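We treat protein structure as text, and this decision shapes the records that our systems exchange. Such a record has a labelled line for the sequence and another for the backbone structure tokens. The record that follows is passed on verbatim for readers who wish to inspect the format:
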Amino acid sequence: MNFLSNYPAEVLILFFLIVTFIQSGIDKLLDWKGNVAFITEHFKNSPLKNSVPLLLGIILIIEIIAGILMVIGVYQLYTSEAKEIASFGIELSAITLIFLLIGQRLAKDYAGAMSLAVYFIISILGVYLLNS
């Protein structure tokens, strides 16, 4: 068995997304008030302005679940070469990125929306590799 399992590209993509989503979720948990204040200001002129805490909570939950699923997925790739949980975790992360993209577009933060494309491309590559 190779150091990065028999799926080195998949494992590296999973590690990248695990760091991204777990760190983001932990940041929201540790600085909830700061994140709500920042996002509320960011969305002050958008249709989402009155729903920030609820939507941020939903994103937080999905980020943590996606991160946990991807951690389990890495373990399964190493132990049984099962791809289903890893694939589901990456698919959930891609859906989360679409939600974030919608928010950025509604806030008219086009540069922020554009920066999400990098993460989305990585997610889609992971989905492709885990399903091929």
Q: What stands out?
A: Residues 8-131 form one domain.
